[in-house]
Each structure stands twice: as structure tokens, then as C-alpha cells.
TrEMBL record:
<dbReference type="InterPro" id="IPR009057">
    <property type="entry name" value="Homeodomain-like_sf"/>
</dbReference>
<feature type="domain" description="HTH tetR-type">
    <location>
        <begin position="23"/>
        <end position="83"/>
    </location>
</feature>
<protein>
    <submittedName>
        <fullName>TetR/AcrR family transcriptional regulator</fullName>
    </submittedName>
</protein>
<dbReference type="InterPro" id="IPR001647">
    <property type="entry name" value="HTH_TetR"/>
</dbReference>
<dbReference type="InterPro" id="IPR050109">
    <property type="entry name" value="HTH-type_TetR-like_transc_reg"/>
</dbReference>
<keyword id="KW-0238">DNA-binding</keyword>
<keyword id="KW-0804">Transcription</keyword>
<dbReference type="InterPro" id="IPR036271">
    <property type="entry name" value="Tet_transcr_reg_TetR-rel_C_sf"/>
</dbReference>
<keyword id="KW-0805">Transcription regulation</keyword>
<dbReference type="Pfam" id="PF00440">
    <property type="entry name" value="TetR_N"/>
</dbReference>
<dbReference type="InterPro" id="IPR011075">
    <property type="entry name" value="TetR_C"/>
</dbReference>
<dbReference type="Pfam" id="PF16859">
    <property type="entry name" value="TetR_C_11"/>
</dbReference>
<feature type="DNA-binding region" description="H-T-H motif">
    <location>
        <begin position="46"/>
        <end position="65"/>
    </location>
</feature>
Length: 225
């Protein structure tokens, strides 16, 4: 018959469980905050609601995040801006041509961000940025500018290799951003209440956009060549 654990062992196990729970709390709070920010918006989301959804007290939330604004910034970093270093390295290591890279970037965006709750952050910022200029400046610095830079590098790679025609790369960035922003808005607005049989297929939509975009970007062979 196995021996019963000693009091010291029980105490150690309880302490370890508490420590594991403590370590998990920031992630649980960020997950709860993302859900509520996307569902209700920044202004309408209250700190106590986030704490309740995460299963902790409001005081516990403020042990980890000093304000609702700092909580929002942490949500953005966890889900988007904190991944730019990884995405930049992936771009640098990509071995295919620029056509393949462009298609990979746009479909990967949908898989990793667009199809997740994190895409609702874009809609939130579009609707509430004017009321929260500090958060708008933060989002511009940590998401918009690095994101634009990644797209710019993809386009410039194609131009430099001779695959893409010469173009105004700065405005070319918005050609790629447009379908992403449309899908983010659609997914968190009309897409929530559209009948299933009429629902837009995001992957098919992106592929159609990419196919048409590439018709304009690719260098065309000269007539008679």
C-alpha cells in the first residue's frame, strides 16, 4: 500500500500549484482582455470585467498592469507587435521568388492574425483612435510602421530582382493593406451576422486579390520578345 504524502510534501505541492497559477495569470488576463476589447471596444471595457473573465480580482489585474491603457498595450504586443522580429527574420530567410513571398505573406497574415480575435484590434483602433490619441500613437509606432515596412521590403525585393515593375513602393504598400483591412473589418462587423451560405470565403478573396495584384506588379515581356 503506497504511503501517504507527508505534510511537507503537501505544502510543497500546494506552493508549486500556486506558483504555476501565478505564472499563468498574465496570459489569462491578456486573453480575457483581448476578447473583451474586441467585443466591446476599449472605452466600454472595464478592468473589473477583464479580471472577472480571467478569474481573478481587479486588484490582481493591477498587480500586473498599472492601467487599462497598459493592459491594452500588452495585448497588442502579445498578439501583433511582439511578433515582428520573428516575421522579419522569416522574410529574410525566404528562399522563393518575390511572387511566392508576396502570396505567402498575405495568406500567413490571414492564418496568424486575420482569422483570429487579434484582427479585431485593427477595427477597434479605426473606431476609437480619435478618442485615445496616446493609444493611437502607440499603435502607429508599434504596429502600423513596422507592418508597412515589412510590406515595403517585399515589394522592393521584387523590384530589385526585376520581377516587379518600377512603382511607388510607398503607395504600393496600401494596395496590399487594403484587402487585409477589409477582412479585419468584415470579420468583426457584418461577417458576424451574415447567413452562412452567403459568407465571404476569406482565403478565396485573398487569392483573387493577389492574382489581380500580380498582374499589375509583374514585369511584362516586351512585344515580340
Amino acid at each position: 500500500m503506497p504511503s501517504l504524502p507527508s505534510l511537507c510534501e503537501i505544502t510543497a505541492q500546494a506552493r508549486a500549484k500556486r506558483e504555476r497559477r501565478k505564472d499563468a495569470r498574465p496570459g489569462e488576463l491578456l486573453e480575457a482582455a483581448l476578447e473583451l476589447f474586441v467585443e466591446k471596444g476599449f472605452a466600454a471595457t472595464r478592468a473589473e470585467e477583464v479580471a472577472k473573465l480571467a478569474g481573478v480580482s481587479k486588484g490582481t489585474l493591477f498587480l500586473y498592469f498599472s492601467s487599462k491603457e497598459e493592459l491594452f498595450k500588452a495585448v497588442v504586443r502579445e498578439n501583433i507587435s511582439g511578433r515582428f522580429t520573428e516575421w522579419s527574420a522569416e522574410l529574410e530567410a525566404f528562399e522563393g521568388n518575390s511572387t511566392e513571398l508576396l502570396r505567402h505573406c498575405m495568406t500567413a497574415w490571414w492564418e496568424r492574425v486575420g482569422s483570429t480575435k487579434a484582427s479585431g484590434i485593427s477595427k477597434l483602433m479605426m473606431s476609437e483612435a480619435g478618442n485615445f490619441p496616446e493609444l493611437a500613437a502607440f499603435y502607429q509606432e508599434e504596429v502600423v510602421l513596422p507592418g508597412n515596412d515589412l510590406i515595403r521590403r517585399v515589394l522592393q525585393r521584387g523590384v530589385d530582382s526585376g520581377e516587379f515593375r518600377q512603382l511607388d513602393v510607398e503607395y504600393g504598400v496600401y494596395l496590399l493593406l487594403a484587402p487585409m483591412m477589409f477582412l479585419a473589418l468584415w470579420r468583426h462587423s457584418i461577417g458576424l451576422c451574415t447567413a452562412h451560405d452567403a459568407t465571404l470565403d476569406p482565403v478565396a478573396y485573398l487569392n483573387t486579390h493577389i492574382d489581380n495584384l500580380l498582374l499589375g506588379l509583374r514585369v511584362r515581356p516586351e512585344a515580340g520578345s
